[in-house]
């Protein structure tokens, strides 16, 4: 990747820090989601904290130990814990036990499908339960690193060591192995269903064009990519892992093959979390020094949401309309910004 330009003087950036409603959660946070009108802050242990638009905090106990994984579709939040349980939390704050691993193994990854199906993993086993409450399981070569449903059809991507597996749970013998050496952790489908991208234990992404399984290498990161977010139209994939937001182009049939990524919002800190706006070509980026910026993808224009000097940003989320941004750092100090 190209040399990064020095960051602009923060005093020259438009600031909306005075419009942020502070939220103190009193617990470490691992991710942020919206369930209906309320922000849901997932803690590292036991609890989820709901925060309404007035900033009032309501905690709900969801696990009897560490919360290891979480996924949300805006209607419910599905989580896996080190208690071997998969639970769902709805917008009213009601908790439902969905599944318990018979061996009480850790639930390392979860995924949600738009039609209500969900998936979880324990060890090398990935399990899908569809709307008819039918359960199907598949063992992959090593511990599952990540899960993602395709946007169309009931198809699950499973990231693991030395590649990823694509699986139609309702079709016997449909598991298809996509090889690439190394440890694959996070996984995501492009919104148009044409590409699959994994984040790796190494400082890189790997992708496959699903029409012909052609490889796409996305390298040059100084650190591991822990956060990925597709732009509203699916034409760009924003990622963490560098001291600038890296956005890979996916508008053409070849995706990012042979193309340079866009690099926006450089700072003297590593990008920790990215969240693209649900409707416009805007993103929010949280950094390792606690800074949060809103960035316009077209020209890189920045708005300061939160100043630096705090622990790393742990979670960022937009509500469905894109009118509210919620965030928190690893210590549980966060905020809400109404746009």
TrEMBL record:
Q: Which InterPro entries match?
A: Apc4-like_WD40_dom (IPR024977), Quinoprotein_ADH-like_sf (IPR011047), WD40/YVTN_repeat-like_dom_sf (IPR015943), WD40_rpt (IPR001680)
Q: Where is the Anaphase-promoting complex subunit 4-like WD40 domain?
A: 278-333
| SUPFAM superfamilies in alphabetical order | Quinoprotein alcohol dehydrogenase-like (SSF50998)
Q: Which Gene3D superfamilies match?
A: YVTN repeat-like/Quinoprotein amine dehydrogenase
Instruction: Give the source's domain of life in one word.
Output: Bacteria
By its UniProt entry, which Pfam families does this protein fall under? ANAPC4_WD40 (PF12894), WD40 (PF00400)
**Identification of the protein by name:** Anaphase-promoting complex subunit 4-like WD40 domain-containing protein
PANTHER family listed in its UniProt record: TRANSCRIPTION INITIATION FACTOR TFIID (PTHR19879), TRANSCRIPTION INITIATION FACTOR TFIID SUBUNIT 5 (PTHR19879:SF9)
């Amino acid at each position: 990747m190209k040399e990064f330009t020095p960051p602009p003087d923060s005093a020259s950036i438009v600031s909306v820090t005075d419009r942020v409603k502070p939220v103190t959660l009193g617990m470490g946070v691992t991710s942020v989601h919206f369930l209906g009108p309320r922000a849901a802050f997932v803690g590292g242990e036991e609890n989820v904290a709901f925060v309404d638009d007035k900033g009032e905090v309501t905690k709900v106990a969801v696990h009897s130990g560490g919360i290891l994984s979480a996924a949300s579709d805006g209607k419910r939040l599905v989580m896996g814990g080190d208690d071997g349980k998969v639970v769902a939390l709805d917008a009213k704050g009601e908790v439902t036990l969905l599944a318990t691993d018979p061996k009480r193994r850790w639930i390392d990854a979860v995924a949600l499908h738009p039609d209500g199906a969900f998936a979880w993993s324990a060890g090398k086993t990935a399990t899908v339960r569809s709307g008819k409450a039918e359960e199907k399981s598949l063992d992959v070569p090593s511990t599952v690193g990540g899960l993602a449903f395709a946007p169309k059809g009931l198809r699950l991507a499973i990231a693991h060591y030395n590649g990823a597996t694509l699986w139609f749970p309702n079709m016997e013998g449909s598991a298809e192995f996509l090889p690439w050496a190394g440890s694959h952790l996070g996984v995501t489908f492009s919104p148009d269903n044409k590409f699959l991208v994994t984040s790796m234990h190494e400082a890189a992404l790997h992708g496959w064009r699903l029409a012909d399984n052609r490889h796409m290498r996305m390298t040059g990161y100084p650190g591991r990519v822990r956060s990925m977010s597709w732009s509203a139209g699916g034409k760009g994939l924003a990622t963490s892992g560098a001291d600038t937001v890296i956005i890979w182009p996916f508008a053409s049939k070849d995706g990012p093959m042979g193309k340079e990524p866009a690099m926006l919002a450089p700072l003297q800190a590593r990008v920790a979390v990215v969240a693209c706006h649900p409707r416009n070509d805007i993103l929010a980026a949280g950094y390792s020094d606690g800074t949060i910026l809103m960035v316009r993808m077209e020209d890189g224009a920045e708005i300061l949401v939160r100043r630096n000097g705090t622990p790393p940003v742990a979670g960022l989320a937009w509500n469905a309309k894109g009118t509210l941004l919620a965030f928190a750092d690893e210590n549980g100090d966060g905020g809400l910004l109404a746009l």
